[in-house]
Structures are given as structure tokens and as C-alpha cells.
Design brief:
With 110 residues, the chain is α+β, with helices and mostly antiparallel strands. 15% of the residues lie in helices and 37% in strands. The protein is built from two helices and five strands; from the N terminus they run βββββαα. A five-stranded mixed sheet has the order 2-1-5-4-3.
């Protein structure tokens, strides 16, 4: 295992993580966010610095969140319509089945 220092440009933080192989520039990695969710990051830069002890070179990665992750971060999850008598009454009384967020479900094919 190779211990790599990761400098996160998105959160302005530094962490040490162990890898089986050092990721290359342009590759993507998944890192745990401060909120506990996983997010995709792009490797922007890779360099090696001599460690304070012995003749050892430590790899450093400079990463930034992928543009698609950033776009998803700014948008809230698709909101479902609130359940309330005033909003449901016209559709429900007309005999139509109320639909709430069904675009997120996979149709059952039996």
C-alpha cells in the first residue's frame, strides 16, 4: 500500500489515503465528503516530495470535484408535491390517481 497525501481544492483540505497504485493525472477517484456521502474527484496534478525521514519519496495528489458532481451539489433533490387536501382534491375527486415522484421508480414488469 502506498500512502498518498491528497490536497483537495474543493474543500481546501489535506488527507492521507492509502492506495494500491498511485492514480494518474486525469483519472477519477471517489472520496468521502464531510457530510458522509461519496463524491467523484478528478486528479489535477501529481508530484513527489522527499520525506523528512530516509530516502523516501511521498506522492502528492491535487484533486478537484468533477464538474458533474459540482452541478449536482448545487441542485436539491427532486421535490415531491406536498400531500394536502387543497392540492389533492381536484385530481383525486376526478377519479385520477395522484402521482408523486414516480419518475424515480422503475416500472414493475411482472
Amino acid at each position: 500500500m502506498i500512502e498518498v497525501e491528497i490536497q483537495n481544492e474543493t474543500h481546501q483540505s489535506q488527507h492521507r489515503i492509502r492506495f494500491a497504485a498511485v492514480p494518474r493525472i486525469g483519472e477519477g477517484i471517489r472520496l468521502l465528503e464531510p457530510d458522509g456521502c461519496w463524491a467523484s474527484y478528478d486528479v489535477l496534478d501529481l508530484w513527489y516530495q522527499k520525506a523528512d525521514f530516509g530516502d523516501v519519496w511521498v506522492p502528492y495528489l491535487h484533486v478537484c470535484m468533477t464538474p458533474t458532481e459540482k452541478a449536482n451539489l448545487g441542485q436539491p433533490a427532486p421535490a415531491q408535491r406536498p400531500i394536502g387536501d387543497t392540492e389533492l382534491a381536484p385530481d383525486y375527486l376526478a377519479g385520477e390517481r395522484p402521482v408523486y415522484g414516480e419518475e424515480e421508480f422503475v416500472p414493475y414488469t411482472g
